[in-house]
Design a protein that fits this description.
The chain is of the alpha+beta class. The chain contains 2 helices and 4 strands.
C-alpha cells in the first residue's frame, strides 16, 4: 500500500490517493485499487483529509462547546505565559497536520489488516487442500 498525489489540471487541485493492490485469480495479475483520502496543499505541504475527521468545527457546532473551548484556550494561555498568536496558530496547524497523518495511517493500517486476514485465510485454505491431497 502506498500514498500518492495527483494533480488535476482542470481544477488545479492536488488529490491524495491510497493505492492498494490485490491479486485477481481470473486475470492472473495484480489489480490496482485507488481510494481518494484527501487533498494536498502544495503551499503549506499539509494533507486535508476527506470525511469528518480533521475538519474544523463549523457554525453548526453547539454554542456551549465553542464557549468552553474559548475558556480553556484562555486558561491555557495564562498557564504557559507570553505566547504569540502566531506561535499558537503554528501549533494549531501542526496539530492539524499530525491529525491528518494519523488519519491516513489509520486507514492504511485497516487496509493492511484486511489484506493480512485475507492472505491468512487463503493460506489456511491451501493447507487444508494440501492435507486432503496427501490422504
Amino acid at each position: 500500500m502506498s500514498i500518492c498525489k495527483s494533480y488535476n489540471k482542470n481544477t488545479g487541485v492536488y488529490y491524495t490517493y491510497e493505492i492498494t493492490y490485490t491479486w485477481d485469480d481470473e486475470l492472473r495479475k495484480k489489480v490496482q485499487h485507488k481510494k481518494c483520502v484527501g487533498k494536498f496543499d502544495p503551499v503549506t505541504g499539509e494533507l486535508v483529509p476527506n470525511g469528518k475527521v480533521g475538519r474544523p468545527l463549523g457554525s453548526g457546532a453547539p454554542r456551549q462547546a465553542q464557549a468552553s473551548a474559548e475558556r480553556s484556550s484562555e486558561g491555557a494561555r495564562e498557564k504557559i505565559g507570553n505566547v504569540s498568536d502566531e506561535d499558537l496558530k503554528a501549533l494549531h496547524d501542526l496539530c492539524d497536520n499530525v491529525s491528518a497523518v494519523l488519519t491516513v495511517l489509520s486507514s492504511q493500517l485497516e487496509s493492511m489488516t484486511a489484506q493480512f486476514n485475507d492472505l491468512k485465510g487463503r493460506l489456511e485454505e491451501m493447507e487444508r487442500q494440501e492435507k486432503q491431497l496427501e490422504t
